[in-house]
Amino acid sequence: MTAAILGCIVFCITTAASITLLGDRALLSDNLLTPRGFIAFLFHWRFILSMTCALISRFAFVFINHSLVAHPTLGPISTTVTSFITASAYVFIVFSNWYFLGERLDLQQSLGAGLIFLGIVVLIK
């Protein structure tokens, strides 16, 4: 179970980093519908780093799933449980976007993020 928790931490951090890097307003302000804008986007360092983080997060998903397969009660439903566990990345993404991009949440959105996290805790217990 420790391996699954470690995998979840890696998944959450790399997923949040990937999304936050792509959420940069300067990166998104160019016209991505033109060939020149699209190619510039593909070779921008933020996009390349973001895709690297996304690839790492996919490997972390597989690692978590692999770790849970051996668990006696979670093994038969490991992929479903892995999907729920990795949903905790939403909380990391919200925090990361708040901290690095200056995005703000209202009370309803904050409560929703809290409910997601609480649901994951209840599912794992």
List keywords for this structure.
125 residues; mainly alpha; 7 helices; 0% strand; flat
Could you walk me through the main structural features you see in this protein, from its secondary elements to its overall organization?
The relative contact order is 0.16. The protein has one domain (2-124). The chain is built from 7 helices and no strands. It has helices at 2-22, 25-28, 35-42, 45-69, 78-86, 89-101, 107-124. The protein is mainly alpha-helical and 125 residues long. Helices cover 78% and strands 0% of the residues.
The secondary structure category is mainly alpha
Low-confidence stretches: none
Order of helices and strands, N to C? HHHHHHH
Q: What is the percentage of strand-forming residues?
A: under 5%
Amino- and carboxy-terminal Cα gap: 12 Å
What is the total number of structural domains? 1
List the helices and strands and how they pair.
Elements: H1 2-22, H2 25-28, H3 35-42, H4 45-69, H5 78-86, H6 89-101, H7 107-124
Helix pairs in contact: 1-4, 1-6, 4-5
Short description:
The protein has 125 residues and is mainly α. The protein has helices spanning 2-22, 25-28, 35-42, 45-69, 78-86, 89-101, 107-124. The chain is flat.
